[in-house]
Amino acid sequence: MKIITINREYGAGGHTIGRAVAEELGVPLYDQDIIAATAAEMHLDVSQVENSEEEISRTENIMRHITPISYEFKDYLFEAQKKVILDLAGKGPCVIIGRCADIILRDAGIDALHVFLYADQAHRAAWVSRHLHTDDTAEIRKYMKKQEKARKAYYEVYTDHHFGDRHNYDLMLDSGRLGYDTCGKLILTLARA
Amino acid sequence: MKIITINREYGAGGHTIGRAVAEELGVPLYDQDIIAATAAEMHLDVSQVENSEEEISRTENIMRHITPISYEFKDYLFEAQKKVILDLAGKGPCVIIGRCADIILRDAGIDALHVFLYADQAHRAAWVSRHLHTDDTAEIRKYMKKQEKARKAYYEVYTDHHFGDRHNYDLMLDSGRLGYDTCGKLILTLARA
């Protein structure tokens, strides 16, 4: 059985699908847990790590090009997180959600099944609506756009790859059209092959 | 059972995988056949259609921006091919390879399972090497690059979508990493669902 990495668009159900796959395989799911482990690694409070989680804001992205020196904390955080991910992967089969685990494992020569999940705007907006407990379309749109951009920037700053580049994944699934269950089943088929 | 469209990078095994899926499902595979049907539709010789098949050269692409008027024949050809694809889709379940069938069917409101196949440079080069009966790396590289660009340009000129945009597909598979057989099996699972 293999390690599975799941990268995903915001609102495409990555956590839900990843948890179902991990439960079915009886292997650990690493998602939010990585934050706590990273905090421990750096002797920091979880809240200090959570605030800089898998996001790079537009302002920060621009500032990085002007004053690269001012983002050292975030970069140390990434390195600590990378160490945590490699440690976890070293323990055996698991499912890791996001956090550039695809490129981190590949660069370290660790074999894994790399999955990318996406969905159209409407499906992802429905997820965000449930997540934020709001039906305000403008609010949902604005929030999604911000999250999408921040996640994309984080990935691209730390991996030097384009976010969602198909050549980094064994398979890419539209969780909106196929449904979460079908996505989970397809991943399981490959994980067990 | 659904209509299946397969779009693909050059050398990613689209035809082979598509044929296996069609045989397994007992439905027709439309690939080169579309050329003959299009020729008949336009009362042309097959050779006249074959030469303008699913490719737009670099020169043509540049010229199109300068003198759009000079490519009318090719555009008529595309319209005839579109009609052929819609006629074939109207007959029932089938597998259609390339030729912008994904967008043609979607724009016509016809439901289908849309698949995109890709593979890394090395896997595709191995396919091209067998296809051209040569081991000359430079020749293979040059040929691939030309084919890739021509196919991409054709798709983008006629559909107004980016070639390989994940949001146009239900699933995208790395046929190099997963293998042709596994890709076929995953497509069959979805086609039968």
Measured by residues with Cβ under 8 Å of the partner chain's Cβ, the largest interface is: A-B, 20 and 20 residues
Give me the oligomer status: homodimer
Order of helices and strands of chain A: EHEHHHHEHEHHEHH
Biggest β-sheet of chain A: count, sense, barrel? 5 strands, parallel
In summary, what is this structure?
The first copy, chain A, is an alpha/beta fold.
Structure commentary:
Two copies of one chain form a homodimer. Chain A has ten helices and five strands, in the order βαβααααβαβααβαα. Chain A has 193 residues and is an alpha/beta fold. Chain A has a single domain (3-188), classed as P-loop containing nucleotide triphosphate hydrolases (Rossmann fold, 3-Layer(aba) Sandwich), CATH 3.40.50. Chains A and B meet through strand 5 and helix 10 of A and strand 5 and helix 10 of B.
Write the layout of secondary structure elements.
The structure is a homodimer of 193-residue chains.
Chain A (H helix, E strand, L loop, with lengths): L2 E6 L5 H12 L3 E2 L2 H9 L4 H5 L7 H9 L5 H19 L4 E3 L3 H7 L4 E7 L2 H12 L4 H23 L11 E4 H4 L1 H13 L1
Parallel strand pairs in A: 1-3, 1-4, 2-3, 4-5
Helix pairs in contact in A: 1-10, 2-5, 7-8
